[in-house]
Automatic annotation (TrEMBL):
InterPro entries: DegT/StrS_aminotransferase (IPR000653), PyrdxlP-dep_Trfase (IPR015424), PyrdxlP-dep_Trfase_major (IPR015421), PyrdxlP-dep_Trfase_small (IPR015422). CDD domains: AHBA_syn. Belongs to the DegT/DnrJ/EryC1 family. It comes from the Bacteria. This is UDP-4-amino-4, 6-dideoxy-N-acetyl-beta-L-altrosamine transaminase. One of its GO terms (molecular function) is transaminase activity.
């Protein structure tokens, strides 16, 4: 492809963060302040996040990853050995690994081929007397039908922890994910998510007891109440350990980025929406299944733009990805489903036949670049490369 004498365009990565002067200045301010670990900025970030959700009183617990947040939520809910937790096979391993951290077992469910979210109508068949919780994942940033999930949970006495790593800001019936009424919702600020702190996450809950436990377990099992109670009376060296906790706190360096990323989130969302709409329009005549949009009036966060090759495409998924790479476009596959991975497959005796929709989707999916730092010219480059890779002008 490089016979021409035209200068080759630089490689367009699959994802890039957008960090500006405000984030940089806030990080520098943190570095100069002498308080670089969890402190005043992490606290401000938690309050700003609650305000963003439109519920200043909701509990927001800043953590160093969404994985940590999911783990803390399951721990606080008392999930343990002998318990089962239901989730989708079409997700990142973090969604399920936290269940194993607690010694509980994962029960995987296939996807709805339209939304690529967990197949709601297969959840009930997966419930056993040992089932304790459901972890829905808002795949790519399209909301799971939480009203249906919460209804199933209520009828069977199950807890619900939303993996909202993709879903900021996503709405369902005009309500932001995070405020749907599940036991807890966890967001990710990993480098390629819709806003980033490098590494980071937020555990959101209206359950004061859950929040209290998660705050204690976030930092070594230190009981803050005891700490606060005693610091007033005795020198500040005193603290009490009430459980073998974890080291999951978010640093102020990370929170400094988060404060400004959160402010920019509405503008980020607009840019993502515009790119998604351009792709939907420019790729509509190709042998592709384009991703579903949010229902009228709702928001899709467009964390990922996932294409599926249709049956009449003349290339395989792997050839398609190779052609995109040859034209300098990075892409990825979300996900190699859990039932394909040696650990999950062997532990639960899983086969592809058990998850026909996820398997079919997996064999055809390609995630193309969609991020706020892309220029319009770069979006058009992706459009042209996708068209050419499928043999269209
Ligand atoms: C990114 C991601 C996570 C993990 O987020 P971290 O902040 O990296 O721990 C969990 N679940 C899904 C679906 C993700 O995409």
């Amino acid at each position: 492809m490089s016979h021409s004498s035209e200068p080759k365009l630089p490689f367009l990565p699959f994802a890039l963060p957008e960090l500006g002067e405000e984030e940089i200045a806030e990080v520098v301010d943190t570095l100069r302040s002498g308080w670089i670990t969890t402190g005043p900025k992490a606290k401000r970030f938690e309050q700003a996040f609650a305000d963003f959700l439109g519920e200043p009183q909701i509990e927001c617990i800043a953590v160093n990853s969404a994985t940590a947040g999911l783990h803390l939520a399951l721990e606080a809910l008392g999930i343990g050995p002998g318990d089962e937790v239901i989730t989708t096979t079409h997700t990142f391993t973090a969604t399920a690994e936290v269940v194993r951290y607690m010694g509980a077992d994962v029960v995987l469910v296939d996807i709805d081929p339209k939304t690529m979210n967990i197949a709601i109508d297969q959840i009930e068949a997966a419930i056993t007397p040992r089932t304790k919780a459901i972890i829905p994942v808002h795949y790519a940033g399209l909301a799971v039908d939480m009203l249906a999930v919460l209804d199933i949970a209520r009828r069977h006495g199950l807890k619900v922890v939303e993996d909202a790593a993709h879903a900021l800001p996503t709405t369902l019936e005009k309500e932001l994910i995070g405020t749907m009424g599940s036991n807890a919702t966890v967001f990710s600020f990993y480098a390629n998510k819709t806003m980033t702190t490098g590494e980071g996450g937020m555990l959101v809950t209206r359950d004061a007891e859950l929040a209290k436990r998660a705050r204690v377990m976030r930092l070594h099992g230190i009981n803050r109440d005891a700490f606060d109670r005693f610091t007033a009376k005795v020198p500040s060296w005193y603290y009490e350990i009430v459980a073998p906790g974890f080291k999951y706190n978010l640093t102020d360096i990370a929170a400094a980025m988060g404060l400004h990323q959160l402010k920019r989130l509405p503008a980020f969302q607009q840019r993502r929406e515009a790119i998604a709409q351009r792709y939907l329009e420019a790729l509509s005549d190709l042998p592709l299944i384009l991703p579903p949009q949010a229902p009228e009036g709702d928001v899709h966060s467009w964390h990922l733009f996932v294409l599926r090759l249709s049956d009449d495409a003349e290339v395989t998924r792997d050839e398609f990805i190779e052609r995109l790479f040859e034209s300098g476009i990075g892409c990825s596959v979300h996900y190699v489903p859990l039932h394909q991975h040696p650990y999950w497959k062997e532990r639960y005796g899983l086969t592809a036949e058990m998850f026909p929709q996820s398997q079919k989707a997996y064999e055809r999916t390609v995630t193309i670049p969609l991020y706020t730092a892309m220029t319009d010219a770069q979006v058009e480059r992706v459009v042209a490369a996708v068209r050419a890779a499928l043999g269209f002008a």
